[in-house]
From TrEMBL:
Keywords: Signal. InterPro entries: Iontro_rcpt_C (IPR001320), SBP_3_CS (IPR018313), Solute-binding_3/MltF_N (IPR001638). It is found in: Cell envelope. Residues 37-263 form the Ionotropic glutamate receptor C-terminal domain. This is Amino acid ABC transporter, periplasmic amino acid-binding protein. Residues 37-264 form the Solute-binding protein family 3/N-terminal domain. It holds the Pfam family SBP_bac_3.
């Protein structure tokens, strides 16, 4: 009987080992290591996380983080520019290995894809025509039929706009730049979009022309997205992120935050 039990345990152990081995073989992380290439999907139009400089190179917070990630993996980095409306489909169909594009973690998206732990938290804020500063004191004051509120199509800014502005006219645009231009040109009263973008816009084109209502309307953690059913890759990403955030000697995460979200010298490269 004892021999039978031992044989059963040995058989179970072998099955578990085989299952773990199959899981690793099918892991995106293993495929990245075997191919020697990390493919990162991103939409290069979301300052300061990813955008193109004057030479057409993609730069930004997420790009620097992706470079660090590829270096730690010991592989080369390949950026895959992708339109926002097709970026989740591109991940699912294996056009790239990971989305690193300032994507907000939402329950709806989480039904299709998995997220690593948040690497930064942002919220939706409002940039408003300066001419309204005497009458509009809070975002709530803009919720009237006579005001047009703009945002970008298909992002959490659109969701927040529809949630908080039930009476105002809402217009969406393909890019955040087009939406912001509507407010600058006096065709819209205000724009709802991610706080980091709005802060940078106010330091440049919006200066002396717009007012930033900087109290966030929402809580929005940003995370890297991967395909479902890949615990090995998810584990590696979370450990990589924890090291980047907590390593006080290197201070990589703090350096990125200062470089892209506090300082504005890089704006000269994209204008």
């Amino acid at each position: 009987m004892k021999k039978l039990v031992m044989a059963f345990l040995a058989f179970a152990t072998l099955n578990m080992f085989a299952a773990d081995l199959d899981l690793w073989k099918n892991s995106t992380l293993n495929k990245i290591i075997q191919s020697g290439e990390l493919r990162v999907g991103m939409e290069p139009g979301y300052m300061p996380f990813e955008m193109k400089d004057k030479k057409g190179n993609i730069i930004g917070y997420d790009v620097d983080m992706a470079r660090k990630m590829a270096k730690d993996m010991g592989v080369k980095l390949t950026l895959v520019p992708t339109s926002w409306d097709g970026i989740i489909a591109g991940l699912i169909t294996d056009k790239f290995d990971i989305i690193m594009s300032g994507m907000t973690i939402t329950q709806e998206r989480n039904l299709q894809i998995n997220f690593a732990n948040p690497y930064i938290v942002v919220g939706q804020t409002v940039m408003m025509d300066k001419k309204l500063a005497d009458t509009i004191k809070t975002a709530k004051d803009l919720d009237k039929p006579e005001y047009t509120i703009v945002t970008k199509l298909g992002v959490t800014g659109e969701i927040a706009t529809k949630k908080f502005f039930k009476k105002a006219k809402i217009v969406t645009f393909e890019t955040e730049a087009d939406a912001a231009a509507e407010v600058l040109n006096g065709k819209a009263a205000a724009m709802v979009y991610d706080q980091p973008y709005n802060v940078l816009f106010m330091s440049d084109k919006g200066k002396d022309k717009l007012v930033h209502l900087d109290t966030p309307l929402t809580y929005e953690p940003l995370g890297w997205a991967i395909r479902k059913g890949d615990p090995d890759f998810l584990n590696w990403l979370n450990n990589f992120l924890r090291q980047a955030q907590e390593d006080k000697v290197v201070g990589f995460s703090d350096e990125l935050y200062q470089k892209w979200l506090v300082e504005t010298d890089w704006l000269q490269r994209v204008q």
